[in-house]
Specification:
The chain has about 280 residues and is α/β, with parallel strands linked by helices. The chain is built from eight helices and nine strands. The protein binds guanosine-5'-diphosphate and magnesium ion (MG).
Amino acid sequence: MGRPNVGKSTLLNTFLGQKVSITSPKPQTTRFPVQAVYEDTRGQIIFVDTPGIFTKVKDQVAARINLRTEEMIEKGIDIIVYMVDHTRQRADEENRVLGMVRKLHIPKIMVVNKVDIQSPTHIVQYRFMEDEFDKVVEISALENKHIPILLDAIFERLPEGSAIVDTSTLIQPGLNLDSKTFISEIIREKAFLNLRREVPYAIAAVVDEIEERDNGTTYIKARLLTSADRYKGMIIGTNGAMIKEISMAARKELEVAANKKVYLELTVETDDHWIDYV
Ligand code: GDP
Ligand code: MG
């Protein structure tokens, strides 16, 4: 868990350079989108993402997303890995995620990321949160620092059980791009991040087509659905600048995850039933 831009995806990509697979979820495996499976002789760590933890619970959809998240955490998660970015001020956003973490009675590890950066730092603002966690680990996800310490801390606290994901069926390392849900979550995340102030919640993403092309690229056709024409205009942006930005950010993340070139064709539509796709 952690607010946007703390370095969650970077950490998973760092694991990817180690012994890990990024995969799409089997629905029965977890109710969260599986982001990565780390496996070594000690066992498996299945990393799941917690989409939809946002500051402003303004409307019905946001409330629904947040409720879903809390429910799912309580049912299916063994450990919270809570990441903070000491280079940024704590803000409302942080307090909201922390509020959710406080309600959960499972082991919690606090990860202070970006320790490769010394200044600016707001580490003091985060220090007094440390009491609420079972363990604090300082890492640099980007520069691959102290990652084994984090892995040890996680394995020490995981319950024993049989393997959940059959890693022999995964494309390693890389992403099984069959999952439309996984791809649409990434597209929606990029839309949220780029549009934060203007069109916060009235967006859904639908993946219509995934095709492996002979030249080794994966072609993906997807749509962003929104509730009103004025939102559609904002999502497209001046001369299509905004949709280009969203599309490029999504494509980049998909390429890293899939370890191959991705061509993403992303369009925007107004659709009264958009909410059904959230
Ligand atoms: P997410 O939104 O939590 O998934 O964050 P990302 O993984 O997308 O990272 C957000 C930004 O922080 C990117 O520009 C990363 O390159 C950068 N970043 C992530 N980890 C580190 C780190 O350990 N050190 C530094 N200097 N930058 C980092
Ligand atoms: Mg991310």
